[in-house]
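agent: user wants the structure for Gamma-glutamylcyclotransferase from Streptomyces pilosus. delegating to structure tool.
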Amino acid sequence: MILPFFVYGTLRPGERNHDLFLRGRTLGEEPGRLRGATLYEGPGHPYAVEEPGGAVRGELVTALPDAYPALLVELDRLEEYVPGDPRNLYERVVREVVRDTDGAAVPAWVYVAAPAVAARLRARGTPVGGGQWRGRR
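agent: tool returned. relaying tokens verbatim.
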């Protein structure tokens, strides 16, 4: 399934992983928000935790078609995501993301905190105010 990616942390424009993974490999990047999630601080990167009431700010990234297969593999590796692995820090899921430009809901791949990580963050994590990671180091 070819979908855009919703990025909210180190893959956002201006953040450390954007140029390493996305520069020159996208058709477009546009601001959006993931509803039903709260952004939590992590060691060096954020985690989107699915829970009612919150929203996470980020970008919808549409990959160039010829770059898509390799990019999907590289982003899974970056996020240490292996389908079905209970040791995952993130899970790659399809969620609707609302585009800021027109309010349309778009299905996108999103890396959200894996269940065990999400439980720890809900219990004793630090939420990021406004759901916005940009500029935090």
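agent: one observation worth passing along. The chain is about 20% helix and 40% strand.
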